[in-house]
Automatic annotation (TrEMBL):
Active site: 182
Keyword terms, alphabetized: Glyoxylate bypass, NAD, Oxidoreductase, Peroxisome, Tricarboxylic acid cycle
Organism: Pycnococcus provasolii
Domain Lactate/malate dehydrogenase C-terminal, residue spans: 150-319
One GO CC term, this protein: peroxisome
A GO molecular function held by the record: L-malate dehydrogenase (NAD+) activity
Subcellular compartments: Peroxisome
Entry keyword annotation includes NAD: yes
Protein name: Malate dehydrogenase
Binding-site residues, substrate: 84, 90, 122, 156
Keyword Membrane: no
GO BP annotations listed: glyoxylate cycle; malate metabolic process; tricarboxylic acid cycle
Subunit structure: Homodimer.
Length: 329
């Protein structure tokens, strides 16, 4: 099995540390590079390097270490940024996390422009368009290799569907597309397309609406349960490790289908959208359409469009404003 070099940017944080542990356990990873501005990062690398798996692990701390960390990477995962607190939306994080993502992606453009880039930093609906604009500005944009990680929405949907199915199906056997974006009402689980077919046949329309709302609001459920102690970290690390495994399988030559937030023409007027994509050695080799929607899902799609477009435009405008400020400085 071919091994790959993977970097986690934001590796000392609440998502970064458990994600790095899970990647250290992945047999497809031969070199694991951990980056953060926090001085603890080299120590996190040493700590993980003691795990008895075949991959090597090195921690890098501080801005000067970004390029050495990224050089030669096949896959870069970005959980860097501040977490949500009670009462905050993902958009409240924008001003801080947008700047962080911009800096990190500038490093990717210089050090590993052909790497798969998987962005976790919220608000994903905006940070992925930011990354795209930075890569474009550096002349290295390949839309097939840039992903917003929405796997946690799928993971939650699988779990909640299995609960509602009363043990008829295991969570890991549920297949359900979750499309749109990665924030509140922009998250649209297509419960009408769930497989195994019929596992939710006992649900009323009110039940479907409630289950949809729970999937959409699951991140807030965690934020409130942690009572000021952070947002979803362990489940996000678990989901990101799943997506990383799919990326590494694709880089190995396999064909893998995952939901992800990508450069898309699936919905008119939205340049980025989450839907099922076929991953292969060159990245997102095919972006699938939505398929048949129920009237409730069609209404949800109509309602999410304006919010998602606003988030995309906000990301593009951020890069444009930053470029303007730099030019006038």
């Amino acid at each position: 099995m071919k091994g790959f070099q993977v970097a986690v940017l934001g590796a000392a944080g609440g998502i970064g540390q458990p994600l790095s542990l899970l990647l250290k356990l992945n047999a497809r990873v031969s070199k694991l590079h951990l980056y953060d501005v926090a001085p603890i990062t080299p120590g996190v690398g040493v700590d993980l390097s003691h795990c008895d798996t075949s991959s090597t692990c090195v921690g890098f701390a501080g801005q000067d270490a970004l390029i050495p960390c990224l050089t030669g990477c096949d896959l870069v995962i970005i959980p860097a940024g501040v977490p949500r607190k009670p009462g905050m939306t993902r958009d409240d994080l924008f001003n801080i996390n947008a700047g962080i993502v911009k800096t990190l992606v500038e490093g990717i453009a210089k050090a590993c422009p052909n790497a798969f880039v998987a962005i976790i930093s919220n608000p994903v609906n905006s940070t992925v368009p930011i990354a795209a604009e930075i890569l474009k500005a550096n002349g290295v944009y390949d839309k097939r290799r840039l992903f917003g990680v929405t796997t946690l929405d799928v993971v939650r949907a699988r779990r909640f569907v299995a609960e509602k199915a009363n043990g008829v199906v295991r969570p890991e056997d549920v297949d359900i597309p979750v499309v749109g974006g990665h924030a509140g009402k922009t998250i649209l689980p297509l419960l009408s397309q769930v497989a195994p077919a019929g596992c939710l046949s006992q649900l009323s329309q009110a039940d479907v609406q409630a289950l949809t709302a729970r999937i959409q609001d699951a991140g807030t459920e965690v934020v409130e349960a942690k009572a000021g102690g952070g947002s979803a970290t362990l489940s996000m690390a678990y989901a990101a490790a799943q997506f990383a495994e799919s990326c590494l399988r694709a880089l190995s030559g396999e064909s893998v289908v995952e939901c992800a937030y990508v450069d898309s023409t699936v919905v008119e007027g939205l340049n980025f959208f989450a839907s099922k994509v076929k991953l292969g050695p060159t990245g997102a080799e095919e972006v699938f359409g939505l398929g048949p929607l129920s009237p409730f899902e069609q209404e949800g799609l109509t309602q999410l469009k304006a919010e998602l477009k606003g988030s995309i435009d906000k990301g593009v405008a951020f890069v444009s404003a930053a470029a303007g400020a730099h030019a006038s400085a």
